Amino acid sequence: MSVQAPPIHAAARAVAASKIYGSGDTTVRALDAIDVSFEQGRFTAIMGPSGSGKSTLMHCMAGLDTVTSGQVLIGDVDLSLLSERDLTLLRRDAVGFVFQAFNLVPTLSAIENITLPMDLAGAKGDQGWIDEVVGATGLADRVRHRPNELSGGQQQRVAVARALAGRPQIIFADEPTGNLDSNTSAEILSFVRRAVTEMGQTVVMVTHDAVSASYADRVVFLVDGKIVDELADPTPERIRAHMNQLGA
Amino acid sequence: MLRLGLKSLLANKIRFALTASTITIGVAFVVSAFVTADSLRNTFGDLAEDINTGTEFTIRGQLAFGDLTEGIAPPVPESLVERVLAVDGVAAAEGGFFVDGVVPVDGSGVAVTSFGGPVAGSNWTVDDEISQFFLISGEKPVGMTEFALDVGTVADYDFELGRDYEVITPTGPRTFTLTGTMQFGFPDNAGAGATFSLFEKETAQEILGYGDEYNQIGVRVEPGADLDAVEQQLAAVLPDGVEIISAVDATEEFNDAFETFIGPLQTILLAFAFVVLFVSAFIISNTFSIVLGQRVRELSLLRAVGATPAQVRRSVLTESLAIGVVASVVGLGLGMAGALGIRAIFSTFAEGLPSGSLPLNLRTVIWAAVVGIGFTVVASLVPAIKASRISPMAGLSDQYSTTSQRGGPMRPVVGAVLLAAGLALTGWALFGDFDSATPLLVSLAAGGAIVFIAVAVLSPLVAGAIVGAISRPLPALLGTPGQLARNNAIRNPRRTAATAVALTIGLSLVTMVALMAESLKVSFGERFSTAVTADFVITANTAAGLPKPAGAELRAAGLGTVVGFDFDRVELTALRDVDGIVTELITDVTAVNVAGLGDVADLDITAGSLDGFNPAAGLLIHEDVAADYGLDIGDEVVLGFVSGDERVVSVEAVFARTALWSNWIIDQSLHAEVATTAFDDILLMATTIDDPEAARAAVDRVLESYPQASLDDRQEFQAGIESNLDTVLVISTVFLAFALFIALIGIVNTLTLSVFERTREIGLMRAVGMTGRQLRRMIRWEAVAVALYGAVVGLALGLAFGIATITAIPDDIIGTVAVPVVWLVVFGVLSLLFGLIAALFPAFRASRMNVLDAIADE
Predict the structure, then answer these.
(1) pTM for the full predicted model
(2) Is residue B354's pLDDT more than 80?
(3) Smallest CA–CA separation between B481 and chain A, in Å?
(4) Taking the C-alpha atoms of A125, A128, A130 and A131 in order, what is their torsion angle to the nearest 10 degrees?
(5) Would you say the C-alpha torsion A160, A162, A166, A171 has a positive or negative sign?
(6) Which helix (H) or strand (E) holds A231?
(7) Minimal Cα distance from B852: which residue of A?
(8) How big is chain B by its Cα radius of gyration, in Å?
(9) Residue of A102, A109, A151 to mutate for B, most B C-beta atoms under 10 A
(10) Distance from A242 to chain B by nearest Cα, in Å?
(11) Residue B204 CB burial class (10 angstroms; 0-12, 13-18, ≥19)
(12) What percent of chain B has pLDDT over 70?
């Protein structure tokens, strides 16, 4: 296992990050002294079998959860030093989220969902950028609709747009296409890919699907709370080969 | 399945406690009502038995009409005692008195007054068996200079045996030496809140103004004598207009007399209990609906693995049964505590009333169980049936929340039909003809309840629009949390409506009471200020009124015109010339000094004149009754008095204004011929002294010897009446506040469940950056929006009901609709506070929710 020295342009990184649940005999090490860094302007996929700790890593990196030991940084901010309130403000201002399901507030329209984080901040947002993001979703004519009036794929596009709208330092996506058929998945992943390539965003995506992961610039493999391997410029075939090799 | 229902309860203890508490309060109210009434019944029942023990028969004047509560029986002649004693088997017979309004003044100059029990004068009898009084200390009073007092009064006021005190009797103030203390009923009885001044028989006769008469004659029969035979012989010696009643009948009569105020008291308390239970039923139904909606998956899984609809239904009903049982048991205990509280309130009005232990009758326990379990189970019936209809496939769909928004297409129809039925019933109650109050009140209550159910059914149809309008300023005022609060309040109109309906009911009743009290106040004020021109209004701090000598002394002092007003119950037969009888009714006449009436009141005479009024045979009538009974100047009317005497009077004038007098006015000199008239209820006085301060001082000097008198100028008197109405309003509001409290619990319950239901949504918002403060603000203002919706509908309904009721009430009682703006504003602000308070717990819970758990929730 080789670990690169953190590059200067890391959007987020973990240093010897461990997450331990329980104590004594029932101790579970969800994360085991992980060092990892996510570079700016790149699309990273985190892969691993169930229970490998990939969701825990994402939650800790995103400030939704805290590590037991070690450090997690977004930009230069050490999350372990932040209060619950400051963590919330950090998520609001510096992090974008796309979840697998239930991404949108049902009582808000698509556009209200997209601007929710900046509305909560009481900020105006960059209207030109928001228009651009909305235009990229292809949903410009449906932004006044409520989530239940949109298809699953459209809902996920709105979720991605929300993550992009505030131009966060980093976007975390947790199985964003887990509930979608393959055509819709491809559409969403292409959208995310464009966001990285054309808009310069930083995206970290948790997935267990090799095809999805192949949209990333880099794949990090996690087993038993440890990073065991990684792959640059992946293809589905190479990813599957690595997965088999890891016995997952 | 039974275990499942119970497990679901135990898993949600707080919800269980909140839901059960609503019905518990209702049960407690029912229990308090019964226990309080029973406790009063026991007190008076014991007393009735005590005072009739040893007296086999009572002989008294026949009541011409009505019953004991409407008038004291006419007196019987003293000479009758001799004839009674001559009857075989009679061991003893003695005359006695009971005259209300005999006021002793204590050593500190304080008059013993009360609006609770009577402040009465009576006599002790030589025969201890017949006596209703028992000597406790000192000596029985003898002669014209001695008196005794009941022990309670001596204990509560500044009295000492052997000293002289003034007693204001119907024949004027007199001085007596206090020789002893006595007890009405047996010594272990507290005297039921009455004050008694006791004199020797002959003294009583003179000072109470009875001459050679008694109120009644008590008869003791020789041991072993045949009661029936004695009764027959006694009946044979009685003159016309005098009757004999047995001890059993006397006891019953006594109890019946008190039942006429205990019964309504119990009814009023039960009415409040009904409101509370009714409101609770909505809360319970709503809670069950939401909870079962959230358990769709679980219930459909049960159905999928083989539970029948009946089993699902039973598991829900088991849950509600358990709530009902717990609520009944706790409510029973709470109700007993409540009865203690009510007793404490009573005893501030009437000492020692009621006394003894709190009686818990089987009837009370049964009612507690019936209403506690009944209301809970009935309220959960619809949710239970709906739950049993959940398909086994329901849980497989991804739809998480309950999506029933506005209900089926039948909702407007059902609502409209219910509303029409409720309004029809209410209208019938308000404007129909009823012989007694009971069917009126029952149809009014049933009509009101149906209207409220209709409102609950229809409310979801308008809730979205109204809540939307109410909460329109929220986004601008509070930003995104305000926007989200507004959206949440609108998102499920059915739930919002069901949550708000409890507050709607409570507030509409409070509003209606406030509107009626305000209108009554304004109407009275208008009538009083136009009709009464007197400088002073003199009343007494006892129910009996002021002894006539007070008025006489004022007249003698030459300070101006003094007119006494004395109300009496009469049987009135209106004759129209030769056409014969037009109508017969029992009504109130007012006996006044007509000669001075024009100086103290502006009656607005519309026909005839007060000049040359014939005191012996004249009658003044209000234009309304003139119109109702087709009476005109010169028409003759027969008045039958309690004494049995009849007088024919003729209409001499028709007046348009009323205030302190009834629709029929006769002269006091006529009244004195046909009734024992020892008191004036009110004195109106127009002084000839220009300076108000000097006038007041002069009047005060005359009234010094009547410390129970209360002297007010017109403004003070009007303010006093208004403050009494305010007191009634405050008391009713306090009782109705229980319904409002339950509405509060309802909002807490719904909001807590909604927050639970929106766990993932809240988790999402927290993840993307909503702060705990923003989250709490969102929930708080959702609650406020719901509460204000309930308030707006409640205020509107309350005003509508109030105006309808006022329309049905005769104009001479409430003629003006006056909207109590200040109260309405207070109710609105209170509702806003309610929302804020109701949101405290749910908001706290929501902000404590773990974000990870929330978004990982699957």
Answers:
(1) 0.82
(2) no
(3) 8
(4) 150
(5) negative
(6) strand A226-232
(7) A64
(8) 33
(9) A102
(10) 28
(11) buried
(12) 92
